[in-house]
Amino acid sequence: MVYLDNNATTPLDPLVIEKMNWFLKEHFANPSSLYPIGRQVKELITEAREQLASAIGAHRSEIIFTGSGTEADNFAIIGVLDAIPERRQFITSAIEHPAVIETARYLERKGYLVHYLPVDQFGLIDLDYLKSVLTENTALVSVMLANNEIGTIQSLEEVVKTAHSHGVLVHTDAVQAFGKMEVNVDKLGVDLLTVSSHKIYGPKGIGALYLRKGTPIVPFIHGGHQEYGLRAGTENTIGIIGFGEAVRIMKDRWKKDKERLEKLADKLKTGLEKKIPSLKFNGHPEKRIKTTVNFAFPGLEAEAILLALATKEIYVSTGSACSEESEEASHVLLAIGLKPEIARSAIRMSLGRFNTEEDVDIVLSEMPGIVQRLREISPLDPEA
């Protein structure tokens, strides 16, 4: 099996499995209980919180565990806007993850004015447009750090500088950036930041929101006093422990992983460009997460390529796993100027910790023939 969909989810690291198995065998108590076995679980949660805080340059009191990256995005956006009800404007980009885009659409239905920042052909937002729409009525700007489909990295420091000069808070969805590049909340200057466990070889069902001290926010899950009173409900203890261990491992090896995987990704990209005619690469040539490789195959449907590769046990995707079932063309690829028929031909390959050079060699061996056979039976012209 060749798994090249690590942007959708990553396999559990064996050390994470080991830590989670130990926890399941040794601990079961509720962390809110005052007796010793409950306090032991609470201490382990605190240890995981400190691991994550350390990884992004925050204090542990600024880390709120959530049920997913999507929940953290929703909490950040809706929570801040509810805390500043007099401000009725929200700004985001046209290429955000569905967790942000759909929240923006929800806000529009609630009567908020939402601006979607346009992007250029590489996926970089228009900073001049941002400056033109910021007003005293703007509550929050949310711009992702690295795009999940094409890997483009935004100049977030410039976004923060511009927004803060108008007294506006900034949130970033850093789910695809975390573990692949340096993510430091003070260097970025953001007020809120979202990360997720299952993108860094941890378990699914656990994410986190960084909330800078003093940032106004209103909880939208009400109940007990867990997570500093900001996210009620008994903690997902096994998920938190796994997340903490995944972060610990990531801190030790992300730079080594990055160097190795970028070389493999470059081999994959250049190899496909040499072997397959009429490809269109999507994303910034340099300013991107280079382990994300997105190509359009004019004249073909991406789903046909994906299914043909799956018969060879090569697994890739057509974009965000959260919108994979939609028949619509990717909103990200449309936003960078691709025609719908070209956008529907795009495949995303994303490398991860457990990929090898042999994986890349297999793809370079199998994929050209698959594309050629599909083009021979396609009625569409790849040069059109």
Order of helices and strands: EHHEHEHEHEHEHEEHEEHEHHEH
Q: Give the terminus-to-terminus CA distance.
A: 34 Å
Instruction: Provide a count of the helices.
Output: 12
Strand arrangement across the biggest beta sheet: 2-8-7-6-5-3-4
Based on CA inertia axes, which overall geometry fits?
Answer: globular
Which class do the helix and strand fractions yield?
Answer: alpha/beta
Question: DSSP strand (E) fraction?
Answer: 5-15%
Gyration radius over CA: 21 Å
Number of strands: 12
The first-level CATH class name of the largest domain = Alpha Beta
According to CATH, the homologous superfamily of the largest domain is: Type I PLP-dependent aspartate aminotransferase-like (Major domain)
Q: Count structural domains.
A: 2
Just name the CATH architecture of the largest domain.
3-Layer(aba) Sandwich
- CATH fold-level topology of the largest domain: Aspartate Aminotransferase, domain 2
Taking pLDDT < 50 over at least 5 consecutive residues as the criterion, the unreliable ranges are none
Q: Mind summarizing the main beta sheet?
A: 7 strands, mixed
Mean pLDDT: 96
Helix content bin:
40-55%
State the main characteristics.
single chain; 384 residues; alpha/beta; Aspartate Aminotransferase, domain 1; Aspartate Aminotransferase, domain 2; 2 domains; seven-stranded mixed beta sheet; three-stranded antiparallel beta sheet; 12 strands; 13% strand; globular
Short recap of the structure:
With 384 residues, the protein is α/β, with parallel strands linked by helices. The protein has 12 helices and 12 strands.
